[in-house]
Amino acid sequence: MSRRIPIVPKSDSWILDDEGDVMLVPPTSSRAMFSPRFREGSSLRSAEHRSTEPMIITFPEDDPAAMLSLCQLLHCHVDMVDPNPDVMTLLGLATVCDKYNCVPALRYPSRIWLNPLVDSTGANDLNDLLVASYLFDCAEVFTKVTCKLLEKWTGSFKELIRDDGGITIPISIYGETQID
């Protein structure tokens, strides 16, 4: 029988299986949720939970398709993810990645997906592509999309600021141009 050698010290915020293997290391944004102060965290630590099925934690505010894609990518199931996602799919994925601090894990795939969309995206979807490139921290694509927006956008830049509760980028990113 082989002996397990821990590579990193264990943390109270990790989710472990019954043999002590790490199953999930929550990102910093969700560590508080797994602490004993919240229902999810106290349930994970209860004796009742340890003797039953795995606990299911729902994330109702997150886009299910984006969460599924993120999980598939993080678990190296890239063949299960659309190789040519559209702008809205990437925006959803970028939003979830940003929320759960997973942007670095998708640094390379995000660039592969974003770059071809710069030239094929219509003027109406350029703002969503701009936001996705901002959330994915892809400066090269962000610069290209900004240039395209300046070139193709015919309306007021005020129209780019979302008032529907959707993800947007800080108004200061749009620059010092007059918005009114």
Concise account of the structure shown:
The protein is mainly alpha-helical and about 180 residues long. It has eight helices and two strands, in the order E-E-H-H-H-H-H-H-H-H.
Describe the structure.
The chain is mainly alpha-helical and 180 residues long. It has helices at residues 28-31, 39-45, 47-50, 64-74, 87-99, 107-120, 126-135, 139-152, and strands at residues 15-16, 22-24. Strands 1-2 form a two-stranded antiparallel sheet. The chain is elongated and about 60 Å long. Residues 5-16 have low confidence and may be disordered.
Structural class by SSE content = mainly alpha
Strand proportion: under 5%
- Biggest beta-sheet profile: 2 strands, antiparallel
What is the overall silhouette?
elongated
Q: Could you give the order of the helices and strands?
A: EEHHHHHHHH
Number of helices: 8
In round numbers, the mean pLDDT is 75
What's the layout of helices and strands?
Layout: E1 15-16, E2 22-24, H1 28-31, H2 39-45, H3 47-50, H4 64-74, H5 87-99, H6 107-120, H7 126-135, H8 139-152
Antiparallel strand pairs: 1-2
Helix pairs in contact: 4-5, 5-7, 6-7, 6-8, 7-8
Features:
8 helices, mainly alpha, 43% helix, 180 residues
